[in-house]
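Researcher: Quick test of sequence recovery. Tokens follow.
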């Protein structure tokens, strides 16, 4: 009996000293965010440097087209297969138009490239040059904005000193031939040098005449933008005569990089810290929507306004992006944090607003109806996103790039 008692006591002591196995805690299940669905990425071809600065990208047929680096010798284009990211072709040009490609626009099968000092038009199907114009051989000037309306590419050029031009010309070039004519010219006014935006065109329903509307952001190298007024012009495209002019419609030199937006019979544009709407037939102000928090340095220089139905989306040169009713000027939402320095263009897709924020180096996806952030896709390989997001409808894919790579991806709207 004594032996049995001792056995029990020893067993109790042994088990009391045993450390139990630790409880195994399963890691939490992390649901992968599939809103930004990356399909491919590819290193951008540049044997000259590790960082590639491409200013503009486009899609055509099954190609994603991007420029070479701004420091590459000659002009270079690369085309990648939209489905795989494989390089399909590359194009090198060393003609009379030099510099790097600042803007590209496509009309049908023709790609028009703006280098600042010149224009080049290329047939994308054959990669043959259709025409090229060195501006220094014509008006001896310089100008950056380029947009295509109908069969014409529009651009302004200045004449005289680069820092202080004495005249600005709004020109149009026939896309398929390069034939050029002057739409309108604006001389210097006192101390103010003319700087023109791209144009917007409205067709008079009665006369059927086209009225071209553009901004003259008057500048002076000795004055700040806050001390430099901006004018608004409406010109009859058939007669080349001024229809009306709003002198100093805003207090700040602004909006010279992108064209105004046509909404019905109205023209809308950003100026100083406000969005303006003017009646095109009469030139009268419909409404002005100020954003006082942007004073005194507000401007809308970096991003083209985006019109979607009755809504216009605008991005000033800060963190804000706004959605405004184009007919009334009512602010439907105002996101003050998620859009620092949008790149040139925003997209609207399935009630989502999509753009590259150069300030964040990210692709941003916002709810287009509320302005709330849906997704932010951050930098890859320590290289921030840096160009427009472009969309290819047939494949339902999006494309952009950072300073090292190009990306093809889909966007899946959350339920």
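Model:
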């Amino acid at each position: 009996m004594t032996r049995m008692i001792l056995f029990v006591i020893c067993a109790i002591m042994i088990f009391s000293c045993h450390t139990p196995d630790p409880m195994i805690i399963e890691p939490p299940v992390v649901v992968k965010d599939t809103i930004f669905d990356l399909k491919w990425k590819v290193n951008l071809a540049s044997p000259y440097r590790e960082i590639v600065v491409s200013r503009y990208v486009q899609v055509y047929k099954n190609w994603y087209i991007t420029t070479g680096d701004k420091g590459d010798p000659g002009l270079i284009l690369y085309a990648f297969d939209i489905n795989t990211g494989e390089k399909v072709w590359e194009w090198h040009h060393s003609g009379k138009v030099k510099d790097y490609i600042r803007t590209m626009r496509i009309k049908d099968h023709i790609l028009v490239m703006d280098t600042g000092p010149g224009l080049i038009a290329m047939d994308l199907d054959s990669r043959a040059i259709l025409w090229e114009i060195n501006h220094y051989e014509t008006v001896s000037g310089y100008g950056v904005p380029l947009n295509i309306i109908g069969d014409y590419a529009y651009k302004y050029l200045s004449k005289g000193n680069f820092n202080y031009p004495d005249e600005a010309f709004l020109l149009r070039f026939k896309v398929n031939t390069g034939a050029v004519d002057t739409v309108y010219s604006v001389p210097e006014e006192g101390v103010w040098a003319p700087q023109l935006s791209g144009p917007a065109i409205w067709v008079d329903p009665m006369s059927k005449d086209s009225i071209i509307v553009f901004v003259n952001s008057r500048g002076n190298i000795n004055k700040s933008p806050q001390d430099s007024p901006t004018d608004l012009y409406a010109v009859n495209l058939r007669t080349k005569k001024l229809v009306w002019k709003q002198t100093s419609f805003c207090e700040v030199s602004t909006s010279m990089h992108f064209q105004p937006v046509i909404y019905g019979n109205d023209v809308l544009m950003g100026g100083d810290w406000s969005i303006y709407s003017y009646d095109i037939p009469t030139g009268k102000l419909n409404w002005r929507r100020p954003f006082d928090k942007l004073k005194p340095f507000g401007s809308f220089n970096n991003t083209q306004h985006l019109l979607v139905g009755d809504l216009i989306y605008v991005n000033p040169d800060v963190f804000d992006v706004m959605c405004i009713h184009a007919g009334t000027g009512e602010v439907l939402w105002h996101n003050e944090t998620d859009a620092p320095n949008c790149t040139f263009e925003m997209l609207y897709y399935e009630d989502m607003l999509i753009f590259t924020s150069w300030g964040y180096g990210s692709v941003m996806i916002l709810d287009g109806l509320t302005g709330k952030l849906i997704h932010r896709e951050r930098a890859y390989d320590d290289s921030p996103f840096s160009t427009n997001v472009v969309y290819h409808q047939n494949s339902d894919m999006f494309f952009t790039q950072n300073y090292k790579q190009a990306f093809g991806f889909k966007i899946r709207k959350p339920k």
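Residues 267 and 278 are 5 Å apart (CA to CA).
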